[in-house]
Task: structure prediction
Amino acid sequence: MKSTCDISDDMHPNVQYLKPIFQSFGKKNRFSGQIVTIKCFEDNSLVEEALKTDGRGSVLIVDAGASLNCAMMGDKRATDAIKNNWQGIIVNGPIRDSAEINSMNIGIRALGTCPRKSIKKGAGKRNLKVTFSNVKFIPGHYLYADEDGVIVLEDKVD
Result:
């Protein structure tokens, strides 16, 4: 994968940039893939559901409304993501089990950590346009993440 800096140089101004407020978790610093979205609030039912499906070539975007009241995923969901070949995960909210996740071969960006787990009522929506951190995440578009940041493009770059 080309670096986000090189992609930015080549594709600007057709690049969206995630604000550098998201922390990096997991051993995988670089990941990229086609965007799949979930919008949910303090309920990670759809996150669990999605990560138990084939994620080959995809990055899961979880818009949890920036709520810091509970974690949207932990080590069990990270294990599901690895098992099902997800390339990475962006969470507009916190995660938990960060020590375990940091030893796993997954790339996650999140707003921080929280030990409290989410509720499970099945609330939320999948595969819709979501916007946070001044980025429009559209299913089918592409996300690239590395040590320098996270960017989103309409098309895949080689």
